[in-house]
Structure formats: structure tokens, C-alpha cells
Amino acid sequence: MVWIELFIAGIFETVWATTMKFSHGFTRLGFTIATIVGMTASFVFLARATKTLPLSIAYPIWTGIGAVGSILVGVVLFKDVLSPLTWVFVGFLLIGIVGIKLTTGH
């Protein structure tokens, strides 16, 4: 269950980053509220996960999920263009996330 909570925290990390972009510098109320809700949910799920998981495990996975999720949202929604080499490093991020999970023993 703790890994599901951490995954949800990472997804909300992507949600708030995306809604913050849509808020246009917090000038659009609905997206500003969605950003705050997303941040709160992300922190709540991260806090729940760190009750069981060490911070040295939970935090990098949380930020990694948010980073990869934000990259994918940027490419799909905002038409960001990444070089092939950048995609290689995104792959390294994924390998790191999975590697940390597989080697923790939690």
C-alpha cells in the first residue's frame, strides 16, 4: 500500500505542475485552486509514504515520478520537443526510479 501512496503522490506532483502552467502565473483562479489542491494531495500522500519508507527512498522516487510525468505532459499537451539524447536521459530517470524501488527491500 505504501508504494501505491507514493505513486499517487508522484502523480499529483505532475498534476500540480501541469495546473500551475495552466494558471498562467496564478492569474486563472480555477487552475490556481487546482494547483493548490494538487500540491496538498501530493504532500499528504508523500507524508503518508514517509511514515513507512525512508526519506532517502521516498523523496527521489516522488520527484522522479513527477519529473517523468511532467516531461510526458509537456510533450503531449504543450508540444514540447525533446532531442533523442534527452529521451535517453528520461530513460535513465525511469531506470533510476525502478532501480531504487527494486533494491530497497521495502
UniProtKB/TrEMBL annotation:
Membrane topology: Multi-pass membrane protein
GO cellular component: plasma membrane
Coiled-coil annotated spans: none
InterPro entries xref list: EmrE-like (IPR037185), Small_drug/metabolite_transptr (IPR000390), Small_multidrug_res (IPR045324)
An example molecular function term from Gene Ontology annotations: transmembrane transporter activity
Keyword Transport: yes
Keywords: Cell membrane, Membrane, Transmembrane, Transmembrane helix, Transport
Top-level division of the source organism's lineage: Bacteria
Parts of the chain that traverse the membrane: 29-47, 59-78, 84-103
Subcellular location per the Swiss-Prot or TrEMBL entry: Cell membrane
Family per similarity comment: Belongs to the drug/metabolite transporter (DMT) superfamily. Small multidrug resistance (SMR) (TC 2.A.7.1) family.
Protein name: Small multidrug resistance protein
Originating organism: Secundilactobacillus oryzae JCM 18671
